[in-house]
């Protein structure tokens, strides 16, 4: 292990000794100064997770959250200096963190919070005028072969829990028990300066996911059972999620 990697490993793990060879310019004890520095780094990373996952912290309480986050940061060094990016796999960590098993929906709430942050920082795109969308979709000869381009901020999540209801309730500090609600799929979308979160049907989730993958409108409809097409398209249009329509090339 290189000196740099040894230093980073010791910085994130309080059980490790101060790396050898460190000196202090003012003559202070290097071990003491390193311990203070390490504590500041760990605290900063835990604070970054708290900022990135506020609803998760509300659900389990600050003390539990900081203890859980402390375990995470000791094994997961930042990959970027941008702290908004830190904790990208925090949901996966929560899913396997045994002390959190009594809150089975916690990992999916973390996933939703991550998508919310990603949507906020996604690229801008001009929504297509609603009249042009409606005109294209109203043409029987054109509509079936269209590919629908969606806003780059749009994100989808499938969950067996009512993650949208839980997330929305905790925007106002109101706890909601997950047992009272069915499974929900989430659509996250930035509309102007606001990131919106919607609960959508399983069929709508599959349909929109297919559109994101570049599937034609006809193929996306065929792959989605029990889809309320008119309602789903109206929602995408109303919330300015459609940025362009492309005619699919059909072989002669």
From TrEMBL:
InterPro entries: DUF2063 (IPR018640), DUF2063_N_sf (IPR044922). Residues 4-94 form the Putative DNA-binding domain. It comes from the Bacteria. This is DUF2063 domain-containing protein. The lineage of its organism: Bacteria, Pseudomonadati, Pseudomonadota, Gammaproteobacteria, Pseudomonadales.
């Amino acid at each position: 292990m290189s000196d740099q990697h040894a230093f980073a490993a010791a910085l994130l793990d309080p059980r490790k000794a101060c790396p050898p060879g460190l000196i202090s310019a003012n003559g202070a004890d290097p071990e003491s100064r390193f311990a203070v520095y390490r504590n500041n780094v760990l605290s900063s990373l835990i604070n970054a997770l708290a900022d990135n996952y506020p609803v998760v912290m509300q659900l389990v309480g600050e003390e539990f959250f900081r203890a859980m986050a402390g375990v995470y940061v000791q094994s997961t060094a930042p990959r970027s200096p941008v702290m908004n990016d830190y904790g990208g796999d925090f949901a996966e960590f929560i899913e396997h963190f045994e002390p959190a098993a009594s809150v089975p929906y916690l990992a999916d709430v973390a996933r939703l919070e991550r998508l919310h942050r990603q949507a906020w920082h996604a690229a801008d795109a001009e929504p297509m005028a609603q009249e042009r969308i409606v005109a294209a979709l109203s043409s029987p000869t054109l509509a079936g072969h269209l590919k629908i381009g969606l806003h780059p901020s749009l994100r989808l999540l499938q969950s067996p829990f009512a993650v949208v209801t839980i997330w929305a309730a905790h925007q106002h500090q109101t706890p909601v028990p997950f047992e009272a609600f069915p499974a929900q799929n989430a659509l996250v979308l930035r509309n102007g300066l606001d990131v919106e979160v919607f609960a959508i049907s399983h069929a709508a989730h599959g349909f929109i996911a297919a559109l994101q993958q570049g599937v034609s409108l006809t193929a996306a409809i065929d792959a989605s059972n029990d889809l309320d097409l008119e309602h789903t398209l109206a929602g995408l249009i109303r919330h300015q999620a459609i940025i362009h329509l492309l005619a699919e090339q059909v072989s002669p």
